[in-house]
Design a protein that fits this description.
oxidoreductase, FAD/NAD(P)-binding domain, 6-stranded mixed beta sheet, 22 strands, flavoprotein, 4-stranded mixed beta sheet, FAD-dep_OxRdtase, 28% helix, binds flavin-adenine dinucleotide, single chain, DadA family oxidoreductase, alpha+beta, FAD/NAD-bd_sf, 368 residues
């Protein structure tokens, strides 16, 4: 008899979990997604965790493992350069001491994470050679392992891949009953395992079960531009000091972003002021950008916990319901590893995740 695994949410966590379950013929996998405000669809797409100054070792373990999974998944599912490309990342620093410190950090981190690849200290001119769009380059550190991913296309392609195997997809909002009953637009559905990969929406979803999740929403906006010039597939992502990130995709698409707007709840309105601010930041790097090149402003909702760390795993009182949330601003990077670990748990019933996250009970409490 096949087991029913139902996943709520088809962002990076839901899609990657489905991918790792897709080769298991003993499972029926179903995904529900409301399709609103998804962070994955609206993300900037930088995969480059190694130069972060974050000191949370568990987060770093997840992030570097997640970054390392992309080349495998992309090769297996045959996604092209417009979806994912390891073109490298450049992080700029004006001050020579800061630049050296960043370079030293990269070299030290490479010992434990060879995926960081080749590390180079670049002058401003060398940075401009790598990213010809720039009119105001700064010196920086280049790491060849850095990548950019189009989160929307990546998740979409993964789900299409899974649909050819054991996945059925439904659009629509689901709710939970007080005992974890799954209430869908098609009525109540049974499951053997339920995976709540709902990002910023975990708190409202769990409330009927009288569980309060430590998750708050954060609004993020970015702009996408279509430029007249084209460039190679291998132009690196720029993480400039003091400005928004600058991500040249293939087919002349440039992304500039993103904002981190707290206290906006689940608001998805595009803000003209924010759009102007993002454009101004892009123009400081490439003075030739014009407003009419903006093709869209994307808005997504990130999920944050009070310690800024993701959490995932079975509910303490119900091992058939798994949760994953709190991926914050680096969820495209940590998400693949979280999806892989959740899939392993579904298949083996075992988990030993101390190296990756605190247990979920740190982030869940009973409702009053
Ligand atoms: C503007 C922006 C830029 C970013 N840039 C980067 C970056 O450069 N690098 C990086 O690593 N990370 C980045 N991130 C962070 C990253 O996108 C997120 O952390 C990650 O995508 C979260 O994935 P998730 O699967 O947990 O949630 P999501 O992608 O948000 O998916 C959750 C899904 O669940 C659905 N859902 C929720 N409740 C229900 C319900 N009751 N019924 C049905 N469906 C439901 C939602 O509609 C949504 O589609 C960025 C995020 C934003 C917003």
């Amino acid at each position: 008899m096949q087991k029913q695994v139902t996943i709520i949410g088809s962002g990076i966590v839901g899609a990657v979990t489905a991918y790792y379950l897709s080769s298991d013929p003993t499972l029926n996998v179903t995904i529900y997604d409301e399709g609103i405000g998804q962070a994955t669809k609206n993300s900037a797409g930088i995969i480059s965790p190694w130069l972060s100054k974050r000191r949370n070792q568990r987060w770093y373990n997840l992030a570097k493992s997640g970054a390392a999974l992309y080349p495998e998944i992309v090769a297996d599912t045959q996604m092209g350069y417009s979806v994912y490309q390891q073109a490298g990342t450049i992080v700029t620093r004006e001050n020579p001491d800061d630049l050296q410190a960043l370079y030293d950090l990269a070299v030290a981190r490479k010992q434990q994470a060879p995926q960081i690849g080749q590390i180079e200290k670049l002058t401003a001119e060398q940075v401009q050679d790598r990213i010809p769009l720039l009119t105001n380059p700064q010196p920086g550190v280049f790491v060849s392992g850095g990548a950019r991913v189009d989160g929307d296309k990546f998740a979409h392609n993964l789900l299409k891949y899974c649909e050819k195997r054991n996945l059925v997809r439904h659009k629509g909002k689901v709710a939970l009953g007080d005992q974890g009953q799954l209430l869908t637009p098609h009525g109540q559905q049974n499951y053997d395992t339920l995976i709540l990969a709902v990002g910023a929406w975990l708190k409202p979803l769990l409330l009927p079960m009288k569980i309060v999740a430590d998750v708050r929403p954060q609004k993020g906006q970015l702009i996408e531009l279509q430029l007249p010039e084209s460039w190679g597939d291998d132009v690196p992502v720029l993480m400039p000091e003091g400005e928004r990130d600058f991500i040249p995709f293939t087919r002349s698409k440039l992304v500039v972003g993103a904002t981190h707007e707290n206290d906006m709840g689940y608001d998805l309105q595009v803000s003209d002021l924010v759009e102007a601010d993002l454009f101004a930041s892009g123009r400081k790097l490439d003075a030739n950008l014009t407003k009419d090149q903006i093709t869209q402003v994307k808005v997504g909702t990130r999920a944050y916990t009070r310690d800024f760390a993701p959490f995932f795993g079975p509910l303490p009182d119900n091992p058939h319901i798994l949760v994953a949330s709190g991926l914050g601003s680096s969820g495209l990077t940590t998400g693949p590893m979280i999806g892989k670990l959740l899939a392993e748990y579904v298949q083996t019933g075992r988990h030993d995740w101390d190296d990756y996250a605190l247990s979920v009970d740190h982030y869940l409490s009973p409702a009053e």
